[in-house]
Every structure is written in structure tokens, then in C-alpha cells.
Design goal:
The chain is mainly beta. The protein has 5 helices and 31 strands.
């Protein structure tokens, strides 16, 4: 969903080949002379001509920590023969709850004795507001994890539930425990967790080829989804996690494909002459929004899924490139990148195409801004994008009405943000922070953690809760 096509299009014009080192595409195909001239004009602008968006609130390293309730996760107890299952489940639960960034994690004292009654007074003195205790029973092939959440302040059991898990060591075991973690988050905060999710991304190899990879939200279970040995980019998972949209040059020009992750079957979404790029799913999974060449530039189109049919043109910008489309959570509006003003900016339009586009990124006549790769928060209250600020790209968020613009990062170069389903975490690619890779930022506390490092991993897209 985060696919800044402008820079690689420019590189393709200047070098005669497609270079997707930062984004997703090239000018391969037959882009006509007027469209090429507009892109060459953009290429001719020096980097210094792109100014920081004035009026932004820079909070990249000045987050004000808010109150985080104390949470203690006691060791997971187990019946005979299930000690290893309990150990693995305990590690996953503890890390997930820490990564949720919603709690101040409290260390369990060394003299803690499993199986003892909950001493609310003691835990209260240690600063705990919540206490999560767990037990594993059943068998290694069909373990049952029973989790209890205690309200320490009021001295009472708030929630308790038994969760049936897949066999220990099976491919679904970790994801099942992630779902338990999200349930604990919901019990304590009444809000959505993000542990039971996956992230798809583009990994680039040393020879310039790339493929789409997928991993769990904690960085585990990374595996390759495509094997095109070509330029591949623009991944997006269907809402149910069963299908993948992406763009590949494996058969020549940029073609949009959909892959069934269970069967491995691949179907072509769009292979029109020119560009077929930035495909994304609608929130209900029933439509696909993408950009393709229309005359001498790109416009947004929408297709019905299953079966693919009934395509319609969504935008009529006629000048500049329009792409990077994405849906609002309710599916009624679209956010997109478009460049009718010269350099790309972020706009919102009604999905049905009626009504004037509304610019969200900072634009002042006579000043040159550069903003791309928008993603609408699942909560509906923020739109994230990347903007050129003081000679590098930084992550910015803004309200859907253009208000309350915030610059969230300030170190290195940071691109292509994607929201977690909790509406507070962002994954994005970063360089210059001692290396390159994917980072996760909690937009509430400002906490940042590495998801991957030491590899050219980019263009991440966060799934819905699975």
C-alpha cells in the first residue's frame, strides 16, 4: 500500500533501466512524451529545492511519556511433561505484551513461588496494576493455555479463559499464542492488540533483484512468498491473510498479480500496456485499487474481486502521476499520491469520484514540497506518509481533514509507513540509523524497535488482525 513510484520512475528515465532501490517501479512500457517530460522536470529539481513543511510539530525525539499501568506476567505453570511448551508460551506472551507498548513491565521477584495465591497487596507495592498468570495443561499435541488477568488495584480476578492451542512446535503455535496476547491487551485496555498479525515486505538482494517476504509482527517466521528473481515490489495482504497482491517485472513490464498463499496459484490483476502498479485491497477484500497508465500518465482504477471484473476509472487528474491509492477504514474515501502541482502531494477524494480532491500534505505556493506513500490508520483518525524534510525523508501523520500535522521521525531517512491494526504502531523502512532495515514505532510513547536489520528490507505492509 506504501508505494512511492515517483523516484524510481525518474531513475528509469535517467539510467535507461528500472531501479527500485527505495520504491516500486520504473518507466518501462510506453509512457508517452508529455508524461516523460513532466517527470524529467521533476528530476531536474535539486534536492535542496525541497523544503521542510513549515508548521509541523517535530516530535521524533521529544515524545512526552504518558502513564503506563504496571503489568507483571508470572511464569507459566504446567502439568507434567509440558514444561517446554510452558516456557515457549511464556516467552511469547511476555514479549508480545512488552511490544504492545501499553504497559510498564514489572519483573517477577526472584523469590516468587509458582502456585501460591495471588498476594494483591505485595504486587500493589511493587507497582503492578495488572497481573497475568497462566497454566498449560492437556498434551503436547493439544495443549490448553489457561490465562487469568487480575486487577491488582481492586484485588479481584478480572478475566479468565482457556485457549486451545495447536501442537507445540507446529507452524500455527506462535500465532495462536499471539492471539492470546491480544486478548489480554483487550481485557486490560478494551482496545485492539497487534501481536496476531503479519507484515509483508520487499527484500532486495545484492544483485538488485527482489522478492516479497512475510513475517510475524515480532519478526519471527520470516519466509519468502515470491521467487521471481526480478524486480518485485508493492506487497499487500488481503484482509483475511489468504492472498497477496504485488507487482513484478518477471514477464517484462510492471504487471500486477495476486497470489493465493495456500495453493500458490497466481493470477494477473492488470497487464495493460505501460504501468500497472500499487495494487491494494479494499477493507472488505471485495475490490482492488491500483494505478495504471492512461494516455501519458497514471490514474487510479478499481476492480471487483472473485472473479476479477468490472473495472472502473476512479481518478481524472489528467496532469501528473496519480498512484499510491488507499482506502479509508469505512471504504468511503481514498487517499492517494498525485502530482498535478508539479511534485507529489497527498490527497483525499471520495471513493466514487464525486467531489473535489482535498490536499493533506503541506503545500504553499512558491515553495516545493514532496510527500508520498500514504496509509490510512485503521482507527480512521490519522494518515501517515513520508515527506522530504531537511534533506531526507521522514514519517509524518496528519488528521484526515489536514489538521494536527506531526513529524514522527528525525534521524536517518525513513520511508513507506504502514499502520498496525491497533492504529498506534507504524512499520517503516529506515537507513542511516547504524544500518538499514525495518523499524516499528509506537506513535504514543515514541518507542522504536528494530524489526529487521542488516538487509535491504523495504515497502512493508502490515496485515489486519489474523
Amino acid at each position: 500500500m506504501k508505494t512511492d513510484m515517483i523516484k524510481p520512475l525518474l531513475r528509469g528515465l535517467s539510467t535507461g533501466r528500472a531501479d527500485s532501490s527505495l520504491d516500486h517501479g520504473s518507466s518501462a512500457g510506453r509512457a508517452r512524451a508529455r508524461g516523460r517530460a513532466a517527470l524529467v522536470l521533476l528530476l531536474a529539481l535539486p534536492a535542496g529545492a525541497l523544503a521542510q513543511e513549515p508548521g509541523d510539530v517535530r516530535i521524533g525525539i521529544t515524545y512526552t511519556p504518558g502513564y503506563l499501568p504496571g503489568l507483571v506476567v508470572t511464569p507459566v505453570e504446567s502439568t507434567e511433561g509440558l514444561g517446554e511448551v510452558a516456557r515457549v508460551a511464556e516467552a511469547i506472551l511476555g514479549q508480545d505484551l512488552e511490544f504492545s507498548d501499553r504497559f510498564e513491565m514489572i519483573e517477577v521477584p526472584g523469590d516468587f513461588r509458582p502456585g501460591s495465591a495471588v498476594n494483591y497487596g505485595l504486587w500493589n507495592q511493587l507497582g503492578a496494576v495488572w497481573l497475568a498468570s497462566s497454566q498449560v495443561s492437556g498434551s503436547a499435541s493439544a495443549p490448553v493455555l489457561r490465562v487469568s488477568l487480575h486487577d491488582v488495584v481492586f484485588g479481584e480476578l478480572k478475566e479468565v479463559k482457556a485457549f486451545s492451542l495447536p501442537a507445540a512446535g507446529s507452524s500455527g503455535f506462535r500465532m495462536a499464542v499471539h492471539r492470546v496476547s491480544d486478548e489480554v491487551v483487550r481485557w486490560a485496555t478494551a482496545e485492539t492488540g497487534m501481536a496476531a498479525t503479519r507484515i509483508v515486505y520487499r527484500r532486495k538482494s545484492d544483485d538488485g533483484a527482489s522478492d516479497i517476504w512475510i513475517m510475524d509482527s515480532d519478526g519471527e517466521n520470516a519466509r519468502r512468498l515470491t521467487n521471481d528473481n526480478s524486480i518485485v515490489y508493492s506487497p499487500d495482504l488481503s484482509p483475511d491473510g489468504s492472498h497477496l497482491l504485488y507487482v513484478s517485472y518477471v514477464n517484462g513490464g510492471p504487471v500486477a498479480y495476486e497470489k493465493n498463499l495456500a495453493s500458490g496459484a497466481v493470477q494477473t490483476v492488470s497487464a495493460e500496456e505501460g504501468l500497472n502498479v500499487t495494487p491494494v485491497y479494499s477493507p472488505d477484500g471485495r475490490h482492488i485499487l491500483y494505478a495504471r497508465t492512461e494516455g501519458d500518465h497514471t490514474e487510479l482504477f478499481e476492480l471487483q474481486r472473485q472473479p476479477l471484473c468490472c473495472g472502473r476509472r476512479v481518478t481524472y487528474t489528467s496532469v501528473g502521476e496519480t498512484l499510491n491509492g488507499g482506502y479509508s477504514p469505512d471504504g468511503r474515501q481514498l487517499v492517494m499520491t498525485s502530482s498535478p502541482l508539479g511534485l507529489p502531494q497527498i490527497y483525499v477524494i471520495p471513493r466514487e469520484g464525486r467531489g473535489e480532491p482535498r490536499i493533506l500534505s503541506r503545500y504553499v505556493y512558491g515553495e516545493r514540497g514532496y510527500a508520498t506513500s500514504p496509509d490510512w490508520s485503521p482507527r480512521g483518525d490519522r494518515i501517515a506518509y513520508q515527506a522530504w524534510i531537511e534533506n531526507s525523508f521522514q514519517i509524518v501523520t496528519v488528521g484526515p481533514d489536514g489538521s494536527d500535522r506531526r513529524v514522527l521521525t528525525s534521524r536517518g531517512s525513513n520511508e513507506d509507513p504502514s499502520w498496525a491494526p491497533d492504529g498506534r504502531h507504524l512499520v517503516f523502512s529506515s537507513t542511516g540509523r547504524g544500518g538499514s532495515g525495518l523499524l516499528i514505532l509506537d506513535t504514543v510513547t515514541g518507542r522504536v524497535r528494530n524489526l529487521t536489520s542488516g538487509r535491504v528490507d523495504q515497502l512493508a505492509s502490515w496485515s489486519t488482525s489474523l
